[in-house]
Amino acid sequence: MHQPEQPILRDIVLIGGGHSHVGVLKRFAMKPEPGVRLTVICRDTHTPYSGMLPGYIAGHYSYDEVHIDLRRLAEFAGARFFSDEAVNIDRANQKVICRGRPPVPYDLLSINIGSTPQVSRVPGAEQHAVPVKPIYQFNDSWQQLLDRVTHHPGITRVAVVGGGAGGVELVLAMQYRLTRELQAMGRDPEELVFDLYTRDEKILPTHNQKVRNHFHQALAMGEINLYTNAEVTAVDAGRLHTEDGYWHEADEVVWVTSAGGAAWLKETGLELDDNGFIQVRDTLQSMNDPKIFAAGDIATQVNHPREKAGVFAVRQGRPMADNLRRAVLGQPLKPYRPQKKWLALISTGNQHAVASRGGFYAAGDWVWRWKDSIDRRFMAKFNELPPIDEQAMAPTKPSRVPLEKDEQDQAISAIAMRCGGCGAKVGATVLSRALSTLKPVERDEVLVGLHAPDDAAVVKIPAGKAAVHTIDFFRAFIDDPYVFGKIAANHALGDVFAMGAEAQTATAVATVPQGLESKVEDTVYQMMTGALEVLNDANCTLVGGHTGEGKELALGFAVNGLIDENDTALTKGGLQPGQVLLLTKPIGTGTLFAALPQLKIKGRWIDAALASMCVSNRLAAQCLREYGSTACTDLTGFGLLGHLVEMTRASGVDAELKLEVLPLLEGAEETVAAGVLSSLQPANVRLRRAIKDQDQWVDHPRYPLLFDPQTAGGLLASIPADQADACVAALHSLGYPHTRIIGRILPEGDALEPVHLR
């Protein structure tokens, strides 16, 4: 993550990861604007390039070849990436309302979310048709359709609804791919029947006659049935209905027509056209809100209406970026006039394509190669990125953002050297506003808590209980304060759960980068909202804390837990020979987050790692006790080997680990193989002397992961061997699908090394 020297003065928020917004990110990456922060809100980390989708469907490209990795691109641009989905805009308070996180404030907002199929207008289509748009959702639907068709016995009839370029390209790509899939299975391709339906009297109505003739021939060669003047008026299981009154058989229905704006836009008060698209000026600003911009399919330029085509979204990226920059700097915006004619390169499924522009027509394999070259060059701009440290060499420039008088005072204060002690505390007004809406779970033992104006919390220890105390604190490793808050709370609670205790109360200590009061307030609010969700879920009351200003965002908790006085805590010293070792979560967080700033990752690897770190160990700890666990610890900074050595020494036993069965986070082996290791790895590697015959294992691809430091890692525990399988099954059902038996406990041997690898 990035730590800018210049305090954040303005926030530009980008909703969606469409073709225009990737252009915005790249331009701001090449020329950052000091004091301006970009935030991307997008549900999917990998955004598809529509121009290569037919080639992907046909099998000519892999998934990664046709997707832009938004998380990597955002990291490169110094932008925050929030994996979520916008569902509304609070324009009065300038906040984006999201589906699964706190509202995100903005100073300027841009929307580039593509179009949404209006399948609800046709009875049954929502239930029985597969919409192509939004494109980011289509991949899962396509994979499911592919599986259904290849496993469907006998004749399969596939109907594509929509006679524009998208529908024609898609039906030809599907016919090419599915035919070859059946041939590879030794089945007869004649089992496939394809139908193309269009409500128009001709296909490709916006293209010239030569182009249409070529595709008529392509459809005929593929034995694809064409139905013109055949508007689909209803869809049912196994059939569809056209306006002429006939029902037609259709095992699969793919919808490539009647797209409009997302339904939630109607609640925003933005001016929309009849299809629900945002109406924008030539500056790409909303007609009735100059702080909101829109581009791509979701936008309609009132003065220059154009067909919905990816070429316009791509071309709008540069003027969008430039006008966002001008707007945040208080400069006049420049109008953008889209071209009236554009080159369309339309593929026919079989690495053959047609070029169309006005009256121009050309076709051949060479057109496909031309299209392929253009598409690959476009994707390389966003996926083949130079290392970030090369970009960070430029000296920091003063911000050009115009500020109000009170903002100027705050910015000067943020930049100036702060004294220590109370001078480094976040202001009381800012803190009270940020925390005022937080509602910690209530416990009867808390006599004085978070919202009391006292200097300390007062908490009773119930009769018959013993107190369990722990503390954890670390700096942020991601740019999303909400998710970081959740992980920090999970990490701190892990020690209490590993001991077999319940969490009672927590006290927070946080460091927040200096900046304008509104920015500091939101950071605290986002971070503590995430943390409080985790604490409340654990029935752990947040009773107070301390928040100071510093260079980096950081958060920690002192957690107090309770355990019955007569209960035996799950300590590290309870390993017994004959037991098996269980690990409840995959490992690899250290290497993955070391690889993120080096851009040596795939965004989905980080998504999976964050999801794992957000899973609480509470239910796992309870399950382990129920199945007779006698020793347990949570994996954190010392890594798997470090924590296991602690347990063997305390228990007076040896342990055997099976490297091949270790649960790993996706991508961890790849980043380790690339030599990307956590900064804590060298200290952990010193424990290699605890491995018997370690020279035999140093070249094993999983060997370095024994030393990988974990954040909010899983539980490492011992279980009686006869309970192991049942315990693993129970943990899987509780939401720990990666739980594995990774080894066994041995009697202490004569060798000095307590850990044996297999």
Describe the secondary-structure layout.
Elements: E1 10-15, H1 19-30, E2 36-42, E3 46-48, H2 53-58, E4 67-69, H3 70-77, E5 80-83, E6 86-90, E7 95-98, E8 104-105, E9 108-111, E10 116-117, H4 125-128, E11 130-131, H5 135-151, E12 156-161, H6 165-184, E13 192-197, H7 209-221, E14 224-227, E15 232-236, E16 239-242, E17 247-249, E18 252-255, E19 259-260, E20 278-280, E21 292-294, E22 299-301, H8 310-328, E23 344-347, E24 353-357, E25 360-364, H9 365-383, H10 388-391, H11 405-415, H12 428-435, E26 446-448, E27 458-459, E28 465-475, H13 481-498, E29 502-513, H14 517-537, E30 541-550, E31 554-564, E32 580-583, H15 589-595, H16 603-613, H17 618-626, E33 631-634, H18 639-651, E34 653-657, H19 668-673, H20 681-685, E35 715-719, H21 724-733, E36 740-747, E37 755-757
Parallel strand pairs: 1-2, 1-9, 2-5, 9-21, 11-18, 12-13, 12-18, 13-14, 20-22, 29-30, 34-37
Antiparallel strand pairs: 3-4, 6-7, 7-8, 10-19, 15-16, 16-17, 23-24, 24-25, 26-27, 28-31, 29-31, 32-35, 32-36, 33-35, 34-36
Helix pairs in contact: 1-3, 1-8, 12-14, 13-14
